[in-house]
Amino acid sequence: MAREAAAAAMKGKKLHRGPWQEDEDELLNTFVSLLGSQRWDFIARVSGLKRSGKSCRLRWLNYLRPNIKHGHISAEEEQIILQLHKRWGNKWARIAERLPGRTDNDIKNYWRTYLRRKVQVQKKGDQHEFLFEKGGNAAPQCSNEGGNHKSFVDVLETENISSDAAGTSDFGLTNSPYETRISDWISEFSGEEGEIKYHHEYWSCLESCCHYSDWISEDSDIWETCSDSLWNMD
DNA sequence: AAGCGCCTCAACCGCATGGGA
DNA sequence: TTCCCATGCGGTTGAGGCGCT
Prior knowledge:
The chain is an all-alpha fold. It is built from twelve helices and two strands; from the N terminus they run αααααααββααααα.
């Protein structure tokens, strides 16, 4: 960036910084539709925007791109973020791939907010225990102390839901925007180091979690119970 | 009404990565 | 193989909004 700024300065141009104006957005939109969402330096140059290519790319990806979702993260999305963050850590871009319309920036920002909230809750002595890895990324680890965790099926049975129902294809996210994505992910995952069994079980469980997100309260330990057994799966 | 603190989110920064010469 | 450049990614910052006192 310093190099870009320096290069612009050498050419006698000063790069715009700060919030984008409406006319800048329109200009960027126009040139991206003409030239595609590649070659950002070129787009920045030919559009006349006094912005770096990087800045143009960011603006496009995080705001102007079609099908971007603005607004609140749903409970369902939140749980997916939690699950994926637990598995992958701060791989925001990778997590964002699993949430159509959400950007890595959205998720990153959301996680910071979420994290802060959880830490505050923890300080207040909430039973929701999140242990943070020392020196590593900030992925929360669900406490498993006491060895008292039930399997997800056990939990379902406790809640009077048959494991059959939880395991059938009918159980999936029929009303969820993630319905098709999940099957895509499973096939995608199948190419990753023979992890297909793991992911089938993982997504089957995750689908169940998502499907029941209406009745599983935010504070329920079902999510953690479910994920604990999954993350420990070999 | 004013001041303050907290929260959210857009944008920036710097490093990593990949591809081409 | 090495270098250079564009792009991608994750961490961080700061402006503005909002609620509380």
